[in-house]
Amino acid sequence: MKGLSISKALSKLLSLAALGTLTAVSGLAATPAQAALLIGNTEGNNVVEVDESTGQFLGEFISPFEGFESPDTLTYGPDGNLYVSSGNTRESSAVYRFDGQTGNLIDKFASGGDLFRPYGIAFGPDGLLYTSSFRSDEILRYDGQTGDFVDVFAESDGTAAGLNGPNGLLFGPDGKLYVTTQGSVADDEGNLDFAFPSQVLRYDIATQQSEVFAAQPEPSPASFDFVSFLGLAVGPEDNDLYVSDFANGIRRYDFETGNLLGALDTNYTETDPSSNFIGSLAFDPADSDLYTVGFNTETTVGSLLEFDASTGDRTLVVEDSPALQRPIGLLFKADASGVDVPEPGMLLGLLTGAILFFPRKRAAE
After folding, report:
1. Rounded distance between C-alpha atoms, residue 276 and residue 304, angstroms
2. Domain covering 6-14+37-364 assigned CATH 2.130.10.10 in the classification
3. Under a CB-based contact definition with an 8 Å cutoff, are residues 355 and 22 in contact?
């Protein structure tokens, strides 16, 4: 359980109040603000749902089933459905599609094209589904509507600046594709050699040309002296790029320059070196707080961390829960309408506008 500060509680209340006002003004059916996180367990072969405010488990959103192995990245598609990458072998590697509200399986959406251990998935502005194939050092593209294999968008060229162990994928505000690499090189059987630095690459999807956006930084003092970039997210308030380091920490970069602006410590076990590793990132659409998941390096039992948007203070929302088994994937569940919940600042402005819209009549009453 965690407590809310007065300011945060007020922010959440304002969000809900504004949403109610918007409903009254627009005539739309009321939709409560969503406060649930979907977390993918790579060792539980499932996806669980957690209330981000209380840490209460709301049950299995996706239960284990045959062929669904080590679920990794979770993302919503343009159709409002949930897409999840999974698989440890070439035969089992696939992207599955589920109903975005119920978690019911729709189909095995995309596979083939030498996909081998898919990690990051992202729908591009061209309507294609981009998927990082970690153990073949490729980024593959699939038709965003049918799931049919289209082509190999990018592959490793064997250099230090190449696509070596691609992981997270994100389309930035500039429309370019950002990719975290773990620095590994795979052979034909998928065996790995960590020969290169972990970094963030940036691709122009029109030319398919890449550049190093963020070189490997100094390892976190709490890490085992290595860096392994994983998750990517855009800060809703500062529009900076946040990158999780599997070894320890979350780093923040300027989108225009690639300069490192700061870092957040994710060593929630307070050990030296850290006895926990870190997964993906997700920003709360209601208050812009940043969330990540981690797990104990010895037991793989997981935890859920929150970082306050204004102070960077860290809170353990869920600590060492057996319901989290080596969690990596993390995503805020979309509301029933399929529309993201607006940020409090936007809602407050709309609330103010709504109040000003009826000032004289309300005052007279």
Report:
1. 12
2. yes
3. no
Q: Cα separation of 136 and 133, whole Å? A: 6
138-166 pLDDT, tens digit each: 999 999 999 999 999 999 999 999 999 99
- Distance, in Å, from the CA atom of 148 to the CA atom of 110, rounded to the nearest integer, reads 6
Domain map (residue ranges) of the chain: 6-14+37-364
What's the whole-number mean pLDDT along residues 235-256? 97
Cα distances from 54 to residues 2, 159, 170, 180, 230, in angstroms, run 6, 46, 29, 31, 26
Confidence band of 337 (pLDDT split at 50, 70, 90): low
Omega cis (within 30) before 273: yes
> Nearest Cα to 327, choosing from 275, 279, 282?
279
Residue 107 one-letter amino acid: D
Strand partners, 180: 200
